[in-house]
Design goal:
Strand order of the largest sheet: 1-18-17-14-13
Largest sheet: 5 strands, mixed
Helix content: under 10%
Structural class: mainly beta
Strand content: 35-45%
Distance between the termini: 45 Å
Number of strands: 31
Shape: globular
Length: 367
């Protein structure tokens, strides 16, 4: 397996070898985004219920929802009229079908030759399929442009590079070595026809009372820049965002100033739901645009105050540029399980599994 060591990290690695070795090799910059969001933006429900839906995507006038309906695992609607445009991806064994009815988006929707492509993941996470949504709407059946059936074991998140799936960026959190009976840090890598290139991030696990919990501790949402090979991972359990510029080789992290660090925490065995006793709700879904990415944040006072008041329907939406600078944010009064953003209309869409509703936020006033 070929090892990738980015040139801009060599000095940091040499310095780390001469001092106490930390749990992460990435250069980390402190940023202050805690409790700095603006006004509350109120969500509105669309007059559209999608039974069995779970993830959502949008591109221009195409609103796409993955569902558990074996007759239409991907349903496409018009964003303005809300009329159905296509019922795609039936359950079955053909190339343009999925054998497993549970599919979800790979957080990637893009244009190819003026057609909208969405990448879906299914078959227990082992398969990626590029669905040409525009051609499918025109032709009246599901048009698949590419298929990959080689997702590595333990692949928690994957996103295609170069606006396709020939080269993949992978986060693998299956970190238990059964032969040696040890837990290792999760890994990041680039998978292509040339093999696998590791991207060095972690040197060791953080301090766990029981390392079995390390599998979930490093989880985070991944999103990719729409036109560049820049990927970010926003951690669920801590105030860290990792940046991977796979074109320049520049990789780094940002971290909330004053928040616990990977090298300074001890994770105890108790998994407690009380947010004050065991707060592992930090970043959630992330969405990429050309100039910035948006990410849901649960670690601020707005969320905590709403939990105390038994409201629960509260989250903050933060914006960062691709250099890690905090741009601002807003408060949301209705939460959703999956998000999509249309930069052409400045509308944020969210799908709620609990009531199978779609909520929208007008972000045109967001600065």
């Amino acid at each position: 397996m070929k090892k990738v060591i980015f040139s801009n990290l060599i000095g940091a690695l040499l310095l780390a070898s001469c001092t106490q070795k930390g749990p992460m090799v990435l250069e980390t910059h402190d940023v202050d985004f805690l409790n700095r969001t603006g006004d509350v933006v109120h969500g509105k429900f669309l007059d559209l219920d999608v039974a069995g839906g779970h993830t959502i995507a949008v591109y221009d006038t195409l609103l796409m929802v993955t569902t558990g309906n074996p007759a239409a695992l991907l349903q496409v609607y018009h964003t303005e009229t809300l009329k159905p445009l296509a019922m795609l991806c039936q359950q079955g064994h053909a190339a343009n079908e999925f054998a497993d009815k549970y599919i979800f988006k790979s957080d990637q929707t893009f244009l190819r030759d003026e057609d909208v492509i969405i990448v879906l993941r299914g078959e227990g996470g082992n398969t990626l399929k590029e669905i040409n949504v525009s051609a499918s709407v025109r032709e009246g059946y599901t048009v698949v442009e590419g298929i990959r059936n080689d997702m590595p074991h333990g692949c928690a998140d994957v996103v295609g590079l170069d606006n396709g799936t020939d080269r993949l960026f992978i986060f693998n959190n299956h970190n238990y070595n059964m032969i040696e009976n040890v837990y290792n840090p999760p890994s990041f890598s680039v998978l292509s026809s040339n093999g696998t290139e590791d991207v060095d991030v972690y040197t060791r696990l953080v301090d766990f009372e029981n390392p079995v919990y390390s599998t979930f501790w490093y989880d985070g949402s991944i999103c990719k820049h729409p036109s560049k090979n820049i990927v970010v991972q926003c951690m669920h359990t801590m105030d860290y965002i990792h940046f991977f510029n796979l074109d320049s080789g520049k990789c780094f992290s940002i971290h909330q100033k004053g928040a616990p660090t990977l090298g300074g925490i001890r994770v105890r065995n108790e998994i407690v739901n009380d947010i004050y006793m065991y707060d592992f709700n930090h970043f959630s879904q992330s969405i990429a645009t050309e100039d910035m990415f948006l990410v849901i944040y649960y670690g601020g006072d707005y969320r905590k105050d709403n939990l105390v008041q038994s409201h629960g329907e509260a989250a903050e939406l933060l914006a960062f540029d691709w250099n890690g600078n905090y741009l601002g944010g807003v408060k949301l009064d209705i939460i959703a399980d999956d998000l999509a953003y249309n930069p052409m209309t400045n509308m944020l869409y969210g799908f709620r599994i609990r009531d199978e509703k779609i909520v929208t936020y007008d972000l045109s006033g967001f600065k």
